[in-house]
Amino acid sequence: MKIFRSVRFNVLLFAVLVAASALGTLLPQRYEVPAKVAQFLASHPGLGPVLDGMGFFNLYHSSWYIALMGLMAFDVIVCKLRAFPKKTHDEDKLSELLIAKSPLKRNFQSPLPLAETAGRIKQNLARKGYALREHREANEVHLWAAKHRLQRWGDFLLHTSIVLILAGALAGSLVGFEEFLPVLEGRDSPMRNRPWQVAVDKFTVKYYPETGTARTFASDLRVVDGGQPVGTKKIVVNDPLDIGGVRFYQASWGMTGMLRSATLEFQGSKGSKMSLLVPTGGRSPIPDTNLFVSADSLLPHFTVDGSSRPDSMGLEPRNPAVLIHFFEGEKQISSLWLLRDHPHIAFQVQPDESLTPVSRPPFRVADFDPVKFSGIQIAYDPGAQWVGYGCVMLLAGLALHFYFHQRRLRLLLTANGGGTHVRAGGWSSRHARDFEAEFQRLLDEF
Amino acid sequence: MGMTEMVLFNLAFAGYTLVLALYFAYAFTRRESFSRSAYRLLTGTVALHVLSLGARVLAARVIPEHTWYVPWSNWFESFSLFALLIALVFLIVQARTRLPILGVFVMPWSWLAIVMALSYPFFSTPNASIASFGGFWAFINSAREIPKLAPALQSYWMAIHVPVMFFSYSAFANAFGIGIAYLIQERQIKSKKPTELSYRLPSLEELDRLIYRIIVIAFPVLTLGIMLGARWAYDAWGRYWGWDAKETWALITWFIYLIYLHMRLVMGWRGRRTAYLSLAGFAVVIFTYVGVNYLSELHGFLSGTGR
After folding, report:
1. Which candidate in B164, B222, B235 is best for mutational testing of the A interface (most A CBs within 10 A)?
2. How many CB pairs below 8 A link A and B?
3. Would the CB atoms of B209 and A240 count as touching at under 8 Å?
4. Model confidence at A257: pLDDT above 70
5. Across the interface, which of B151, B234, B263 has its CB nearest the CB of A216?
6. pLDDT per position as a tens digit, B213-223
7. pTM metric for this prediction
8. pLDDT tens for residues B224-237?
9. pLDDT digits (tens, 9 = 90+) for A351-388
């Protein structure tokens, strides 16, 4: 047990936690970027599986990392929580020897008689917020004065709080849950961890003018349990819905790749600009021709991958492209990817699905109505409030320990002729030098 | 960016540069008038810098869509705040210690932070070709555009969490500068021929205690900042702690200073070893602030969505 109380051991434990935590940010983590983990394993066939076996790709949730945290909590318990901080008991009497042992000491002679000197000193100390205790003898007055005695609780509080925070985190990981639920606008989806349906009645996204950057997005959320609504709220980022501790967050959004309709523009036979609304699920005739057109799918952030296939770099409309098909009667004669923001470029889909660029395409996408999904993050963490209490305790402990300054004075006043001989000793929770100036100033005032 | 804000910021930049020059002039000439001028000019520069932040808030009204905006939301703004707070903490240290020589060791970090504020385009578009001075000026000033904030950043937590974190970082920057002063002074004392600088610097014990006093104030502030961030994450992302690279490195910073405090308070370490620990702590602070941008998806100015 002695080793767990050793400061060296605990500092070593902190250093190991530092090294392990740093390593977790340098290696890809499965919960964050699973594709990069797979890539690492493929490119390091020797080292990769060894690291994986040791939990390095899920480092912060690995048994050994949790054990290190548990060990830290255990050490705090055996080091600090064996007993409440002891109140310093003043001696029954003061002596010259006791005062001589104080880190700060000073003697002086007062011309005033004993009772008056004691009265003035007590008055001065009380005015400065010192709590006083007094013992009187025939020719002596013994005074004990203390200020900010609560400071002694700081160390205890801040160490206790670490245990509370780690216990809260453990409770949260054992009993709580997290799940991500993408819900199509106007639809609902079932949760995995509760028998509830989560419906997004309406999803709104607003952009900064002339950009594809979203400035806000929101879901009109309705949570239903057995046909009965248990909670509704318009959730936005930073403002979740809370149903009995289960919190629903507006985490993300994106385009599903589906459309309701697309609006195409093209030059008509008489040279005028024409507009054609193409609803999905059918073919629309192109005026003045015997051709038909359909618009079926969408890529929000269009790019062409290494094998000349279409791909999307993300789910937000940074470079949206719509796939349109042309028909002559029943026969599909051509397919084009049209880029909304780059109307002079298009890509024709070849029979082998590869793309070839087409300059000056005859159509451009003026607008489209995408089917969006709202990414709802759902979390239940019954340990969070204990972590919160732990944080408050930690701050209170740190503030008491470092910002408050416990001071203790011992004063032995002895009648000496017509005056009084004063022997003063001082102690402070800080370095003696930090208290020295104040100690000397106090005595000067006496 | 607004013209008033631009002028105020440029004046503050010039002010920091001049303050730095004055502190170095003081170190080399021992003329007290330089140190007095540096202190007064620094006070004025800090005031100008605060005014420039206020002007930036007004200038940010060009983007009326913001529901919340504070002038420390991107690379330029956060480095600008960092520079301001390093200078502000140094003013407090100066007022308490009356040791102007420390300006030589602390104020370069404030000045460097201002330079870093303007450096964003070099990091975001490292291959940009610049043909003329006008092009260079426009390139530099592109860092100063009012950012279009992602929804998560439009929060009152931004107004609380970020300055608290930066206050602690700035105090650690001061402790770092004084730590360097400690190591130089130690070397000077050990050498047979101490220079003038050695006579200007206070005793090793005084420097050691000053570093400790700064860290002891900054450590609870860092703790508060991390907790406020966790509270914000609880509202924004559905968890108070997600082992994002920024969060993890903030925790590592916390552990480094925790080791410092344990070694000093319990093991009785003093002097060079604790000075090295405080230097290591600030190196981790800088990595948490800048380096992690390349690792974090959530907090990254450069790699992620935090820009």
Report:
1. B235
2. 116
3. no
4. yes
5. B151
6. 999 999 999 99
7. 0.88
8. 999 999 999 999 88
9. 888 999 988 888 899 989 988 999 999 999 999 999 99
Give contacts of B229 with chain A, Cβ < 8 Å: none
User: What are the structure tokens assigned to A157, written together?
Assistant: 């509080």
Show me where the domains of chain B are located: 1-149, 155-307
**pLDDT the model gives residue A65:** 96
Closest Cα in chain B to A178: B238
Binary contact (B151, A238; C-beta < 8 A):
yes
Look at B248 and A208 and tell me if their CB atoms are within 8 Å.
no
Cβ-based contacts of B63 with chain A (< 8 Å): 208
Six-digit token string for A124: 């001065």
Residue of B nearest to A205 (CA): B151
Q: Report the Cα–Cα distance between both ends of chain B, in Å, rounded.
A: 17
pLDDT digits (tens, 9 = 90+) for A6-34: 888 999 999 999 999 999 999 999 988 89
Q: A60–B243: do the CB atoms touch at under 8 Å? A: yes
CB contact under 8 A, B236 and A214: no
Helix or strand run (H / E) with residue A122: helix A114-127
Confidence of residue B174 (pLDDT cuts 50, 70, 90): very high
Task: Report pLDDT digits (tens) over B279-291.
Answer: 999 999 999 998 8
Q: Where in chain A is the domain with CATH 3.30.310.80?
A: 96-148+405-445
For the beta carbon of residue B85, count every other beta carbon within 10 angstroms: 24
Q: What was the pLDDT predicted at B296?
A: 57
Residue with tokens 């983990």: A37
Q: Report residue B75 as tokens.
A: 């690379």
Residues listed for chain B: 307
Backbone angles phi, psi at A244, to 5 degrees: 55, 40
Burial class (CB in 10 A: 0-12, 13-18, 19+), A307: exposed
Q: Are B254 and B169 in contact (CB under 8 A)?
A: no
Structure tokens at B11: 């004046």
For A62-93, give the DSSP string: SHHHHHHHHHHHHHHHHHHTTSPPPPPPPPSS
CA A168, CA A247: separation in Å to the nearest integer?
Answer: 17
The architecture of the domain spanning A96-148+405-445 is 2-Layer Sandwich (3.30)
Q: What residues of chain B, 108 to 167, have a C-beta less than 8 Å from chain A?
A: 148-152, 154-155, 157
